[in-house]
Amino acid sequence: MLGDIGPLEIGIVLVIALLVFGPKKLPELGNGLGRGMREFKETVTGEKREAVEVSAVAAPKPEDTAATVAEAGPTRTS
């Protein structure tokens, strides 16, 4: 039954999903679906995998950078 799904059908489903959920919500739904499938796989196989949080390794926020520059004091340019 799933072997009969072609590129046209997949495209139609993606266009309908885009119209229903919108472009901002669609990536969040994809992330949630992927996370759920990963948890299901871990539960079935009994494997545990440590997830690396990308957001924890992200670049510093602009307000953090401004505070660091303010603490360093004025700089001289000659």
Set out the fold topology.
Elements: H1 7-21, H2 26-45, H3 62-72
Number of helices: 3
Largest sheet: none
Q: If you average the pLDDT, what whole number results?
A: 76
How much beta, percentage-wise? under 5%
Query: How would you describe the shape?
Result: flat
User: Which structural class best describes the helix and strand composition?
Assistant: mainly alpha
Number of structural units classed as domains: 1
Total number of strands: 0
| Topology order in helix (H) and strand (E) letters | HHH
Distance between the termini: 74 Å
Which residues form runs of ≥5 with pLDDT under 50? none
User: Can you give the helix content as a percent range?
Assistant: 55-70%
Rg over CA atoms, rounded to whole Å, is 23 Å
Describe the structure.
The longest helix has 20 residues, at 26-45. The chain has helices at 7-21, 26-45, 62-72. The protein has 3 helices and no strands. The protein is flat and about 70 Å long. It starts with 6 loop residues before the first helix and ends in a 6-residue tail after the last helix. It has one domain. Helix content is 59%, strand content 0%. It is mainly α and 78 residues long.
